[in-house]
Design goal:
Strand content: 25-35%
Largest sheet: 10 strands, mixed
Radius of gyration: 45 Å
Distance between the termini: 139 Å
Helix content: under 10%
Order of helices and strands: EEEEEEEEEE
Shape: elongated
Number of helices: 0
Length: about 250
C-alpha cells in the first residue's frame, strides 16, 4: 500500500485571534499647491488701440451759475440788469370759486394752442385775469389802481444763481442784490386762498383792463397780532416785500 508521506490527518480550523494594538500615527505629508503651477513671468505690453471718435461739444458754461428767474408782478418790463423772458398779464382762480389752482400765473400775451375743444365745460379748472383790489391808494401813492388788470413780466438774471422773496422787508440782506421792492399781496381772507406775491412798489396797469369782472384778485396783506408778535409787527399794518438775487 502507498504511504502518506509521514503526515497525519488535517485538523479543525482554530478560533479567530484577539485584535492587535493600534499602530502609531504616521507623519503629516507635505502641503499641496491646489493643482496650480508656479506664477509665470509678466507678458509684454500690447499695442495701443485706435483713437476713439470725438464726443459732442457740451453746453456753454455760465461761470458755474445757472442764473435766477423771477416774476416781477405789476410791471411790464424787468429792472436794470435783468433780461425779459416774456411779458404778460397776471391770472388765477376766480375769488368766488373753491376749486382750481392756488398760485397766481404770469400769462404770456401771445398764447399758443395745442389740441382743444371750444366751449366752456363744467368739468375743468378755469383761468381768469387778475385785478388790483385796493380801497385806497395809500400804498402805491397817487396811482389809481382799483379794479385795473395786473401786468407782469418774467425776468432772468444770468450772473446770479439764487432768488429770494422776503416778506415784511423792503431792503435785501448784505451781499444780495435788490431786483425790486413793493407790498405783499394775496387773495382776500374771505376768498379762495392763494399764494403771497410781491407787487412792485410802482405798479402799472393793463391798457383797457378796468372793470369788476370774473377775476382773480390781489389784496394788500395786513399783519394781525397774536401768534405774530406785536411789537415788532403792528396790528392792521400792510406788509412790505422785496425780491433779491445773489
Amino acid at each position: 500500500m502507498t504511504g502518506n508521506n509521514g503526515q497525519g490527518a488535517k485538523g479543525l480550523k482554530g478560533d479567530t485571534g484577539l485584535q492587535g494594538a493600534k499602530g502609531q500615527k504616521g507623519a503629516q505629508g507635505l502641503t499641496g499647491n491646489n493643482g496650480q503651477g508656479a506664477k509665470g513671468s509678466k507678458g509684454d505690453t500690447g499695442l495701443q488701440g485706435a483713437k476713439g471718435q470725438k464726443g459732442t461739444q457740451g453746453l456753454t458754461g455760465n461761470n458755474g451759475q445757472g442764473g435766477a428767474v423771477y416774476v416781477r408782478w405789476g410791471r411790464k418790463t424787468c429792472p436794470y440788469g435783468a433780461t425779459t423772458v416774456y411779458s404778460g398779464v397776471a391770472g388765477g382762480t376766480d375769488f368766488s370759486e373753491s376749486g382750481g389752482g392756488t398760485n397766481y400765473q404770469c400769462l404770456p400775451n401771445d398764447p399758443q394752442w395745442g389740441r382743444y375743444q371750444d366751449g366752456v365745460s363744467g368739468y375743468r379748472a378755469y383761468m381768469y385775469g387778475a385785478e388790483y383790489r385796493v380801497a385806497t391808494n395809500a400804498l402805491f401813492g397817487s396811482t389809481s389802481l382799483d379794479a385795473h388788470d395786473v401786468p407782469c413780466t418774467v425776468c432772468y438774471v444770468p450772473t446770479r444763481g439764487s432768488k429770494l422773496m422776503i416778506p415784511a422787508r423792503n431792503t435785501c440782506p448784505t451781499g444780495w442784490t435788490e431786483e425790486y421792492d413793493g407790498y405783499l399781496m394775496a387773495a382776500s381772507f374771505t376768498h379762495t386762498a392763494t399764494e403771497y406775491v410781491c407787487m412792485d412798489d410802482n405798479p402799472e396797469t393793463v391798457l383797457g383792463g378796468q372793470g369788476r369782472q370774473s377775476k382773480a384778485s390781489f389784496y394788500p396783506v395786513e399783519a394781525r397780532c397774536g401768534a405774530l408778535q406785536c411789537p415788532n409787527y403792528v396790528e392792521g399794518r400792510e406788509l412790505t416785500c422785496v425780491v433779491c438775487t445773489k
